[in-house]
Amino acid sequence: MTFTFRPVTRADLPLLGRWLEQPYVARWWNHDTGPDDLERDFGGTADGTEPGEDLLALDDGEPIGLVQRSRLADFAEYRDEFAALTDVPEGTATIDYLVGDPGRVGRGVGTAVIRAVVDDTWRTQPAVPALLVAVVAANERSWRALERAGFRRVAEGPMEPDNPVDDPLHYVYRLDRPVTGSG
């Protein structure tokens, strides 16, 4: 599987709404999917007026998932939640992800998308030294995908869950930029 990424546009909002309504996504993302809600949460990044990136993951040009990528420095409250549990190097970024196409769930696509966005991050964002990702502990499918993509668990502790029904216990995963040796 080879994935490419492109920024979300307003034309993609109905597709994001359908994906966010999928029961396996809605359980963890807990996101309102009305047109105004989608505009509120994705419109600013589509316009470039808010920090972070909302990226469609494409398989041979076909949208199959969403990746959100942002520098933790742009979201101080979230960075502070991480910092309460682990070291947060200057410039660290985070990702969130979903496989929107139900026919691709449970087939390793999530892990492949994570690997691809990590590679894209190292290639396009040279100032990012590491990626940190927090996953609610009960979301085993998500944290297992991170582990298969090479992330290691570095901390666990309370963080604000996306879904209020979840316990605050999160696992924090980290992947450092590979060190490339010279000659």
UniProtKB/TrEMBL annotation:
Gene Ontology terms: biological process:
response to antibiotic; siderophore biosynthetic process
Q: In which pathway does it act?
A: Siderophore biosynthesis; mycobactin biosynthesis
The alphabetized UniProt keywords are: Antibiotic resistance, Transferase
The reply to whether Transferase figures as a keyword in the UniProt entry is yes
Q: Is the Transferase keyword given for this protein?
A: yes
- This protein's source sits in the domain of life called Bacteria
Domain N-acetyltransferase residue range list: 3-178
For this protein, the record's PROSITE patterns field holds: GNAT (PS51186)
Record-level Gene Ontology MF annotations: N-acyltransferase activity
Question: What is this protein's function per UniProt?
Answer: Acyltransferase required for the direct transfer of medium- to long-chain fatty acyl moieties from a carrier protein (MbtL) on to the epsilon-amino group of lysine residue in the mycobactin core.
> What's the name of the protein?
Lysine N-acyltransferase MbtK
